[in-house]
Amino acid sequence: MDVLVLDLKGLSVIADFFIICSGESTTQVRAIAEAIEENFSKKSIRPVGIEGLNYSHWVLMDYGDIIIHVFEEETRAYYQLEKLWLDAPRIHVEEKGHN
Question: E-assigned strands of the chain?
């Protein structure tokens, strides 16, 4: 939930896009990260690296030009990663299926 895509092109050499989203619990964070990895894998897209799955408070998934951050809600509120990139354009994403 609360999906945010930051366009970092021209602002960072780290990646072109950051995708930031949240889960309500560490179990949900892990499930989200595993679903992302599975769906990308079906398209033969492999991560450069994945960090944080053991504890699942913050999972970082590096896909080269795209870095995905899956946060547990409290951890996202604490780090406020999106505030580090206030000048980055935001891309609207419609969320499906969250009640």
Answer: 4-7, 17-23, 49-51, 58-62, 66-72, 90-91
CB 65 within 8 A of CB 17: yes
CA gyration radius for the chain? 13
Instruction: Say if 98 falls within a structural domain.
Output: no
Domain limits for position 54: 4-91
Can you tell me the distance from the alpha carbon of 84 to that of 99, in angstroms, rounded to the nearest whole number?
Answer: 29
Helices (H) and strands (E) in the chain, counts: 2, 6
pTM of the predicted model as reported, rounded to 2 decimal places: 0.91
Task: Give the model confidence (pLDDT) of 36-46 as tens digits.
Answer: 999 999 999 99
